[in-house]
Amino acid sequence: MGERSGISRRSLVAGSGVGVAAIGAAVGFAAGHASAETAQSGEVPEDLGGDRIDLSTSYDFYTGGHQVGIETPPQRHTVFMTFDLVDGSTTQDLQVLLARWSAGIAQLMKGRTVGAVEPTRADGVAPDTGEAYDLAPASLTVTLGLGPGFFDERFGLADQRPAHLEPLPTLPSDQLKPELTGGDLSLQACADDPQVAYHAIRDLARMARGTVTTKWTVLGFGRASAGRGQVTPRNLMGYKDGTRNVKSAEDFDEFVWIPEPEEASDLLEPAWMVGGTYQVARKIDMDIEIWDATTITTQHTTFGRTKVEGAPLTGRSEFDTPDFDATADGAPVIDPAAHIALAAHENNDGVRILRRGYNFTDGINENGQLDAGLLFISYQREPQQFITLQTRLGGSDLLNEYIRHVGSGLFAIPPAPEPGHYIGEALFA
Questions:
Q1: Which of 95, 301, 381, 390 gives a 20 to 30 Å CA spacing to 419?
Q2: Whole-number Å distance between alpha carbons of 248 and 255
Q3: What is the DSSP pairing of strand 77-85 with strand 185-191?
Q4: Structural domains in the chain?
Q5: Secondary structure of residue 149 in the 3-state scheme
């Protein structure tokens, strides 16, 4: 197979004097300079955990609607990374960065490189690192978020700040570490091949060098939420996770996407956020050894479900509706402090969120125990939806004995750009 075509990093990553023309060129890189397709088609699907996997599946970035990676059926692996903008960055630097990332993401999601892997330039520096060169797209999606710092006084964007983009309040059971908290930008790459997801974040971070610094990251596996038509996965405590997740298009419209207002005067968010959403990211450590030492009865009581079937304690099958009023011998069958009782929309005035999390492991912690847990990612129309649920869960959830929230971030998720444009472009109009 011959070398893939692609513009050089020098023309894609320009200096501080680059203006609107260069932004257009960066967008055009994805629209008009497509490189050759990957060699591996991945046409033979695998059957893993009840889900059919086709590694040749690819998604479009330039949809002009919602960003992919949210309503998209969750893939099996993720790399989540946050970034801070470097001191001295300008508004023009932000425009170039978003255009550059838009171009790169569009290429990567099609299974293409972001430039030559073996360049002919004299300095020999390759724009693409090459570790996914022979791999299929593997359903890669990259979802981009903007943190509160993106809209501070440095860049003159305060009047475009989303209405609810404020740092999350301190929540019950928070044990947040500063090095795992916040961020001016977020990228979540999800794919059915872990190397494809890793390659995407690696090259996008490399592309942004000089404008951002990396802040915190989590490599996740074994999706911990279910999309439409998917078998419910399990978290590292062995329980099915995401049984009652948002799945229908109607629920997405009600709980996830920021709607077009019926009247202009009804618009609470800036116009550029219509069709977008808010992303909450939480790194949750689990005390795996302590959990493993508990009885199965305690575990069932903690979650309010059975472990194998995933049924509520008042039912027989996973998707039976829990009966939170049922009693036996004068006591509730489902403990009011059980995880499903506190998280249920019936007990929270109908509030729901989309969960799109992943399991993670970081090896062994400082105490010689397994360092593992949940990368919790949720999407919601307003952060208050998450705050409402986590306030209840953090205050009295039986699960709190075995988990700690150590990382956190909140990001505004813009809608996807149209072809020929870049994500967030309306911010700078």
A1: 381
A2: 11
A3: antiparallel
A4: 42-86+146-429 (3.30.70.3420)
A5: helix
